[in-house]
Amino acid sequence: MVIEISIRSVLYDVISFWRDIAFSADVIRREVSLDTAPRDIVVVSGVRRSGKTYLLFQLIRDLLENGVDENQIYYVNYEDERIICETRFLTELIPTIREYFTPHNKLYLLLDEVHRIPGWAEWLNRQRERGHFLYISGSTLYLQPHKIPKTLRGRTRTYTLYPLSFREFLKFKKFKIDTGCIEEKRSIIMSHIHEYLQFGGFPEVVSISNKNYKIAKLHEYFRAIMYRDIIEANNIENEFLLEIILKLIMNSTYFGSTKLYNTLKSMGIKTSKTTILSYKKAIESSYMLVQIDIFSYKIKDRLQYPKKVYCIDQGLRRAISPAYSRSESKALENAVFIEILRHINPATNEVCYYKSQDGYEVDFVILRSFKPICLIQVTYELSEKVVKREERALIKAMNEFGLRNGYIIANIDYETTKNIGSKKIHYIPIWKFFTETKEYMKHLQ
Fold first, then answer.
1. If you count Cβ atoms within 10 Å of the first and of the last residue's Cβ in the chain, which end, N or C, has fewer?
2. Distance CA 303, CA 300 (A)
3. Domain span(s) for CATH 3.40.1350 in the chain
4. Which of 388, 431, 428, 445 is nearest to 175 (CA)?
5. What is the pLDDT of residues 330-370, one digit of tens each?
């Protein structure tokens, strides 16, 4: 009994502290909203520092606006140093709330990093059966849909949170794009796009005004993700090798295990392709990098051809990668890819790249049920040579897939459609794509 009273006393202090933080937080609304009356456990996952905790704070505002009694809502961060990684700090949570805070039978429990506590999945399942509304968040691989414990499979709904979209970036900059004529604000929007492409969309980085501090913060994020979400989460012993592999992949447009193996060998570093693939999988589990296949109807081709590599945030990549640090075009392609991911349904859609036999490439092929439905090229500048190359690649892919339309997102001041035979190529200015993404994605799909 003495131990139980001690745990409840600690939990009382923890709950009180985090409720004050959660209810008083200055929340800038994201364009992602969580269900306020979910049937299943809501899982908020994504890369570290993308704003998952503040999305839970945003949920609190939504619940209060919907008339939920504040005494039903409880946010707890299980990374609090006062919480010991013991199951009792879960089993005593609701009894503590009942004793000190509220008699309500139905609670809204918002739990950060709850996976740290042994038995968390079984406890959550039991509380779900009792009718409580449950929300959990974290950067861990254990909260990814394919890693959810068996106890919770079929009982969760996952939201993947990315760093800020450009529209969200503008909100954080207190710049409104929904009033007046967007075209009249084009030059201001473009200056914000330059900053967005340079430093990315991590919320804290966006709020920093000093450019050197922004870069320092991105380096801090890189090391935090590398150590906490890759090395520690996957029990990797060779930290030196992991860091080299991670930086080499970040600096490359394509990933191939054989090429990377040979590069490491030329550097005098001994390893194996099995280790490289194992480390690559661990890196992907951290959400830092995303890789896409070449499009082919043959599984063999997808497995054999190199994968294209994108970072979850173009600012993070430019801070770490020499090859990307000065390339607006590479940063733009990365940003467009993440924007596409935000708007497609991963259950039915997939993004690949296309390469013809004579070497012409289309950046993105959007698939629905394995069928190509949309082709997108991304280029920062449009010289005559670039125009011919991009259009020729689109025409080849359109002919192969039986599509009539192709799209080029570029740094241009106008929006136009070019007819080439029976095909149409639509030119979209980058400032319009980023400010009206939802409308374009509806059209593109």
1. N
2. 5
3. 327-445
4. 431
5. 999 999 999 999 999 888 999 999 999 888 999 999 999 89
pTM attached to this predicted model: 0.94
Buried b / exposed e over 411-434, threshold 16 CB at 10 Å, is bbeeeeeeeeeebbbbbbbbbbbb
**CA 225, CA 267: separation in Å to the nearest integer?**
25
CA dist 416 → 315, 408, 419 (Å):
30, 10, 10
**Residue 159: exposed, middle, or buried by beta-carbon count in 10 A (0-12, 13-18, 19+)?**
middle
pLDDT in tens, 38-92: 999 999 999 999 999 999 999 999 999 999 999 999 999 999 999 999 999 999 9
Decide if 380 contacts 328 (C-beta within 8 A): yes
Instruction: State both tokens at 286.
Output: 């951290």
Helices (H), 66-101: 88-91, 93-100
- What is the greatest pairwise CA distance in the chain? 82
Q: What is the DSSP string of 11-22?
A: HHHHHHHHHHHH
In which residue ranges of the chain is CATH 1.10.10 found? Answer: 202-324
Q: Provide the β-strand partners of residue 427.
A: 408, 416
Strands (E), 51-107: 73-77
pLDDT at 443 over 90: no
User: What are the start and end residues of each CATH 3.40.50.300 domain in the chain?
Assistant: 2-161
Domain 202-324 class in CATH: mainly alpha
CATH 2.60.120.280 fits 2-161, yes or no: no
Q: How far is CA 334 from the centre of its chain?
A: 12
Q: Tokens representing 148?
A: 């959810």
Q: Residue 177 corresponds to which amino acid?
A: I
| Sign, Cα dihedral of 431, 437, 439, 444 | positive
| pLDDT tens by residue, 291-305 | 999 999 999 999 899
**Positive or negative, the Cα torsion across 44, 49, 53, 59?**
negative
Q: Which CATH number fits domain 327-445: 3.30.870, 2.40.50, 3.40.1350, 3.30.230?
A: 3.40.1350
